[in-house]
Amino acid sequence: MTGRLVRFIFHFVSGFINFFAEFFNRTIIRVTRGQPECAKTEQNCNKWLFHFRNSFISQPPERRRPPANVLGWDWFRKNRIGLAHNYAPPPDDPEIVHADDWLIVIDKPSGLLSVPGRGPEKADCAISRIQKAWPDALTVHRLDMSTSGLLLFARSKDAQRELSRQFEAGRVEKTYIADVWGRPKSQHGLVDLPLITDWPNRPRQKVDREIGKPSQTRYVISQSSAVASRMSLTPLTGRSHQLRVHMAELGHPILGDELYAHDEAEKIATRLHLHAAELAFTHPQSGSPMRFQSSCPFNLP
Question: What is the pLDDT of residues 120-171, one digit of tens each?
Fold first, then answer.
């Protein structure tokens, strides 16, 4: 009883700490060209308070404490709030798939951040490594740290603007390979579940049919084994953790997913079995169609 009470208090206090850190970071002070200025405090305050109430205070009791059959540390690891994890990026630089005067395409390894994280210990990332050879490289989109595969950078503001427009307009084709736990009943389908940030449990996302943003993912099963299935996933929207949450909501979490998979599905793999295998877009300067592919680096268990 005492252990559960301590865990609950820690969870509750951590939620408040993270919430107010985010509140002060995003609403009270905003820095423009090195000068602090007031943000739209009332509007943003209402926004963050709304998310906080709906993501923690209104949660049922079972979401606020670990189930009886789950060890306390496992529960905290799945629902962690601000708990630090050692960042150990792979030593080898990403493979350069394509580079020209307008853009760069790399094959990002799992375990490497796309952009810098919080703190100097997370400064090593894909963009910082690429900028050593191409100082003008600019971010266009991101992959989760644990996801490997094709990542696109621009080499000018104009190229970045045009490529970003293509992403926003849904004109960029992205295909992922994922190994999931079990086998879905249907060989193919569409997952249509709105997503929103689970603020007290960041970086986790969650399904919210009332205030979530529209999120859609197409899937096709290509291969199966006794315990898992290989899928081709096509995100029709670009929400954070979209593929991971959608597969987990189907009851078939991606193998090796420390945030959304149950213990068996997580421990069966040494890394997240999610790979950005195909990327297609229009060249920002010539208008020519560009299509790149990357072989999957992991095997179906």
Answer: 999 999 999 999 999 999 999 999 999 999 999 999 999 999 999 999 999 9
Catalytic annotation present for 136: no
- The CA-to-CA distance between both ends of the chain, in Å, stands at 39
* Cβ atoms of residues 221 and 229 within 8 Å: yes
Q: Which of 173, 285, 181 is nearest to 234 (CA)?
A: 173
- Token pair belonging to 186: 């249907």
Which residue among 107, 144, 179, 198 is the active-site one? Answer: 144
> In this structure, which long-range contacts are made by residues 282-289, counting pairs with CB atoms below 8 Å and at least 24 apart in sequence?
282/166, 282/171, 283/102, 283/103, 284/102, 284/103, 284/154, 284/158, 284/159, 284/162, 284/163, 285/101, 285/102, 285/159
247-273 tens-digit pLDDT? 999 999 999 999 999 999 999 999 999
- Report the relative pairing of strands 274-282 and 148-154 from DSSP bridges: parallel
